[in-house]
Amino acid sequence: MTSAPLALAERTAGRPAGRARRLDPRTKAILVLASSLVVMAPGGTPFIPAAIVLGVLLALSEGAWARAVLLPLTSAAVAAAAYLLPMALPYPVIGFVAAFAAYLLRFAAVGGVALHLLRTTTPTELTAALRAARIPRAITTSAAVMLRFLPTIATEARAVRDAMRLRGVGGWAGMLRHPVLSIERFTVPLIASSLRVAEDLSAAALLRGLGSATRPTAMHPPRLGVADLAAVGLVAALVTATVLW
Amino acid sequence: MTTTTSTERRLDVRMSPKDLINIGIFAALYLVVLYAINMIGFASPVAVLVSLPASIVACGIPFMLFLTRVHHAGVVTIFAVITGGLLLLGGHPPISFAVTIVCALVAEAILWSGRYRSRRLSVLAYAAYSAWYVGPMLPIFYARHDYFSSPSMQNMGADYTRQMEDLLSPAVVAAFDVSTIFFGLLGGLLGLRLLRKHFEKAGLA
User: Fold this and answer.
1) Does residue A46 lie in a domain region?
2) Is residue B144 less than 8 Å (CB to CB) from chain A?
3) Is the pLDDT reported for residue B4 higher than 70?
4) Which residues contact B19 (CB under 8 A, 6 or more apart)?
5) 20 to 30 A from A243, CA-CA: which of A71, A180, B59, B79?
6) A227 and A116 in one domain?
7) Which of A20-29, A39-48, B118-127, B184-193 has the lowest mean pLDDT?
8) HSE of A229, CA atoms in CB hemisphere, 13 A
9) pTM, 2 dp
10) DSSP label at A173?
11) Quick one: DSSP state of residue B168?
12) What is the Cα–Cα distance from B177 to B175, expressed in whole angstroms?
């Protein structure tokens, strides 16, 4: 039962040597929430560079070189669209696109930090972290199931889309000509096939004690370590630099 | 556990593992449908105008099927916490999470008034839940002064800034929210129709 999109993350997670230097999933989640809270708040624009620097450093720490380069480049392009485009073309329509770009810039800044969490954390680790954060059982159990099913259903969705393409339905033109019909043709087979898979997987999960009252133990229990301390120090330095500057 | 007249009409908050699994499965389905339809929108900014309403309508189908399968108080709230929570960890603004929870509570109240069995009220509940779509857009509006007070916008002149302020007014946000509720209603109705047309025949509803 390996899931294709998360296979890479699983491979890196299994390496015991790298574990000591990796961040605790709880720290990664807190980094996302903190940067999102600060950057998305009114008056959060000055913190955008700090969030981008954090995103780049996190990308470097996991060895995602492409993201480390693309994140500042994309942000710069979006910032240009937000602040320089209206000067060249002062029309309200362009202005709306520019205002949207100013928001996308915030989104990109938080997204860099969020991608680190999503790319380096397996569903199992995230579930263990949620349990360690003492989130109610009803939420952790259903979240665990959701995280387990997302890759499976995404694979099903790709299969349905390929089948639609093979029959010459769907795609852009079909969506515009018969919107309701193409929605029906996509979602109904997706739901039907996903629920068939779900029957088996949920029976297996129930047998393995999912949702039982006893707290499951984790193979790699989340622990806060030196790396997390370093992350907190880094964030403190970035915030001080932004405030003083 | 609260005991009422019959087990059929039981309303309790404690859910069986089976219910929790169902919530997780449908939350995953909802997110995949949401993203699959919105992926079309990444082609151009104009495409978003088509894909956003289309995704609201499409998500009505798994949501309506979900409501026929789980009849417990609190289902929509847990659904909202896990889907909204994952989007929050994916970089969505925190205010969006708060909006999602409020919409879920409203939907929950509507469902509760039909004892979680009424199909007509399920359509209304989905429409109410769809109002969360305004959440991810909110920072454009509440943080607009950040943008207009930036040095490059100061150069644009008062006339331009006033025009843009009008474009990003609370009235526009309200109109957007009303449109999401309208498309949510359409999605709920489509879900109901497909429930009868496909899922009941297949024994899935």
Assistant:
1) yes
2) yes
3) no
4) B70, B72, B75
5) A71
6) yes
7) A20-29
8) 4
9) 0.87
10) H
11) T
12) 5
